[in-house]
Specification:
With about 325 residues, the chain is mainly beta. It has a single domain (about 10-325), classed as Beta-galactosidase, Chain A, domain 5 (Distorted Sandwich). The chain is about 5% helix and about 45% strand. It has helices spanning about 260, 310-325, and strands at about 10-15, 20-30, 30-40, 45-50, 55-60, 90-95, 110-115, 115-120, 130-135, 145-150, 160-170, 175, 195, 205-210, 215, 225-230, 235-240, 245-250, 265-270, 275-280, 285, 290-300. It is globular, with a radius of gyration of 19 Å. The two termini are about 20 Å apart. The relative contact order is 0.16.
């Protein structure tokens, strides 16, 4: 299985000019002694070394964390059961109570690269899977490539998908784009599924549908869980919080089979957080091979929404989508 060439050193710098540097440092964070900060001076990511693989922080240097954190679970490790903790993680799809919720509470290997790092867990005894997340940061700007991988170390082929799950804090608004719309009767073919769960309630006021977009408002006093999924070849979502925006984007292949009736994207909320999730195709993974889901992340600041209408969302989101790109 191909692996990126890695450097095992304490601090790594990539210099392309006097003002463009990616730096990786080992730090303490939120009670964990072994964390790793990846920064280009404008943005920063923090990856945990005592548990994971997990990205626990993503934000502008000195700014708010755009990722959720559970204070009572920070700095801890070694628990017997799965802990949400917050941040970004990689899961196995389709979801099940045994294979998906394997605890990621043990130390991970950290391998520093020239533009970021790779965090890799031990092989899971109960599944013979091994999860890893690789961070590749641009030397300037706010764009990051994040590769979520699950390797099969069993003796047999297994079918699963890599599932990238990012937890967002309370109080924000998520926006998801539908595939391109068109008028009837010019466009007669179906464009995408909209997938529900048994607990999905489309009358819940946290949901709002426009012609082009689905929006989801995180409400700290709404206890009921909500979830929806969809497919789009250009899968993306944005989360607005305190005039800053986190955007994640990935590509999906319509010729392949995706989990949960064909979802390349899913979102979940309760009173504590919103999860923004992208899924790779279900793959027959042979021993020693991997399933991978690649995302592109970016941050934007001083962004204001006047209203959750197609016109206002077009005005704000089209430039952001162009800025993040996403070609793999």
């Amino acid at each position: 299985m191909f692996r990126t060439t890695l450097l095992l050193i304490s601090t790594v710098l990539l210099t392309t000019n006097m003002n463009a540097v990616v730096k990786v440092d080992k730090i303490e964070y939120q009670g964990w002694k072994n964390c790793y900060r990846v920064t280009n001076g404008e943005i920063e990511l923090i990856v945990t070394g005592d548990v994971g693989p997990r990205v626990i922080r993503f934000g502008f240097v000195g700014g708010q964390n755009l990722f959720k954190e559970f204070p009572d679970e920070l700095g801890k490790s070694g628990e017997e059961r799965f802990r949400g903790r917050g941040g970004d993680r990689v899961w196995k799809a389709p979801e099940d109570h045994i294979g998906t919720y394997v605890p990621d509470n043990d130390p991970v290997e950290i391998h520093m690269t020239l533009i970021g790092l790779l965090a890799r867990e031990p092989i899971e005894p109960s599944t013979n899977l091994q999860k890893e997340i690789e961070i590749s940061m641009e030397p300037s700007g706010t764009r990051v490539k994040v590769s979520h991988r699950i390797a099969n170390h069993s003796l047999f082929p297994l079918e699963y998908a890599a599932w990238a799950v990012t937890m967002m804090p309370q109080g924000g608004v998520e926006v998801v784009g539908f595939p391109p719309r068109g008028p009837h009767p010019i466009h007669l073919e179906a464009t995408n599924p909209l997938v529900m769960w048994a607990y999905t309630n489309l009358s819940d006021p946290r949901w709002k549908f426009t012609r082009k977009y689905l929006t989801l408002r995180q409400d700290p006093i709404s206890e009921d869980a909500q979830k929806l999924g969809l497919f789009s070849p250009d899968t993306w979502a944005a989360y607005f919080l305190n005039d800053e925006v986190f955007v994640k984007r990935s590509k999906a292949d319509p010729s392949k089979t995706y989990p949960d009736f064909g979802c390349s994207f899913e979102t979940f909320t309760n009173s504590q957080f919103v999860e923004i999730e992208t899924l790779g195709p279900i793959t027959r993974v042979f021993p020693g091979q991997i399933a991978e889901q690649v995302e592109y992340w970016a941050l934007f600041r001083d962004v204001k929404l006047a209203a959750l209408t197609d016109e206002d969302l077009d005005r704000v989101l089209v430039p952001l989508a162009r800025a993040i790109g996403g070609d793999q």
